[in-house]
Specification:
Blueprint lengths: L4 H9 L6 H12 L5 E3 L5 E3 L6
Antiparallel strand pairs: 1-2
Length: 53
């Protein structure tokens, strides 16, 4: 089953050394091919949603 944004956030928050950088890296690794996910520079990312970006 593919991992989603919230499941990745939940997983990352359980690690004592989890950071925004490691979370962003995991998002980019797992959601790269998802049309609703847009990679940005550094730790930034965008989510395309029916209500807007």
């Amino acid at each position: 089953k593919p991992l989603g944004l919230l499941s990745l956030l939940d997983e990352e928050s359980t690690f004592p050394n989890g950071t925004d950088l490691t979370f962003a890296d995991k998002l980019k690794q797992h959601l790269r091919d998802n049309s609703c996910f847009k990679e940005e520079r550094g730790t930034a990312f965008s989510i395309l949603h029916y209500a807007g970006k």
